[in-house]
Amino acid sequence: MKNAMRSFSNAFLIVTPLVSVAVMLGLHPDAAMELLVLVLTVIILGLPHGALDPLVAQSIFPGSRKAIFYVLYLSASALVVLAWIAWPKAALGGFLLIAAFHFGSDLGDESHAWLRTCYGLTIITLPCALHGRDVATIYDTLALKSTDDYVALSHWIAYAAGAATLIAVSWKAQSEPRRVAEVAVILLAGICLPPLLFFSCYFGLLHSPRHLIETACSLGLKTLGRLFTMTAPIVVSTLCLAAIGWWLLSRYSVQQRTLLSVFVGLAALTIPHMLLEVCAQSRRNRDAAVELAR
After folding, report:
1. CA dist 248 to 40, 185, 188, 261, Å?
2. Cα–Cα distances in Å, from 173 out to 2, 105, 192?
3. b/e map of 214-252 (b: 16 or more CB within 10 Å)?
4. What is d(CA 78, CA 88) in angstroms, rounded to the nearest whole number?
5. ∠ CA 18-23-29 to the nearest 5 degrees?
6. Could you write out the DSSP letters of every residue in the chain?
7. Residue 32 has what pLDDT?
8. How far apart (Å, rounded) are the C-alpha atoms in residues 261 and 243?
9. Which of 187, 82, 43, 62 is closest to 125 using CA atoms?
10. What is the Cα–Cα distance from 294 to 290, expressed in whole angstroms?
């Protein structure tokens, strides 16, 4: 499984620069193709990395009933959707901040909190540096109103957070060359690629596989077959719920329905997923403290 993690990292380091060069040479995919890549990325590589949450919950709270977990998890997801319906712009802003915090965890607990924050903010804001209008179009669709203030603020955060992240990780160039290479490719892609394509490359080739494999290893799932068996039912169930959401959004265009379904759906899954991660981290810290006390 750890070899699989390195393979995805290698894929990100190779595929993303090639895609960036292709775009710079004028081989720019149209909007429909970008959306298709985004949807396939989220389905194939994104959804499975949260599909192990029931097993994570069982490892944190052994003996607890699965029914209780699903009720709490789905309730949290439903509250996110309701909040997005009631206050879409505020919900979008909250989701962006939470996503930045979540993406910052890619650097691991050994990194300083400020570096994880800068890294996460870089992922979220970097497309605004040179693709502000494209980002504004996406944000306006998700918030159902103008988000120029979000884009303008993100524009300046991108430069500061990106520079701070690159400088900080460069100090570890000898000990962690792969990490430096990943950050360099992220900066390249964030500047060169259209926002949805950038998100697809980062989320699908780096973030999701890394978290999926780390979680699988911690749960003792050592083969891809076993991993597929455990994640497939949750992924299929999530897709069924997404199909219902797609149907309810029938008054919007195909592009708007796709963006709303993907990102509101991700928000609805990310919040309970992160709450569970906080519980898991708290449990690990408590166990470590008990071991030290012995």
Report:
1. 21, 38, 38, 10
2. 22, 19, 24
3. bbbeebebeeeeebeebbeebbeebeebbeebbeebeeb
4. 14
5. 110
6. -HHHHHHHHHHHHHHHHHHHHHHHTT----HHHHHHHHHHHIIIIIGGGGTTHHHHHHHHSTT--HHHHHHHHHHHHHHHHHHHHHSHHHHHHHHHHHHHHHHHGGG-TTS-HHHHHHHHHHHHHTHHHH-HHHHHHHHHHHHTS--HHHHHHHHHHHHHHHHHHHHHHHTTTTT-HHHHHHHHHHHHHHHHS-HHHHHHHHIIIIIHHHHHHHHHHHHT--SHHHHHHHHHHHHHHHHHHHHHHHHHTTTS-HHHHHHHHHHHHHHHHHHHHHHHHHHHHHHHHHHHHHHHH-
7. 86
8. 9
9. 187
10. 6
Per-residue pLDDT reduced to its tens digit, 125-165:
999 988 999 999 999 999 988 899 999 999 999 999 999 99
Tokens standing for 288?
């470590």
Closest among 269, 250, 228 to 81, alpha carbons compared:
269
Distance CA 147, CA 125 (A): 13
Give the Cα separation of 35 and 29 in Å (integer).
10
142-163 burial, b for 16+ CB within 10 Å, e for fewer?
bbeeebeebbeebbebbeebbe
Whether the model clears a pTM of 0.85, i.e. scores above it, the answer is: yes
241 — pLDDT class (breaks 50, 70, 90): confident
How high is the mean pLDDT of the chain? 86
Q: Are 194 and 201 in contact (CB under 8 A)?
A: no
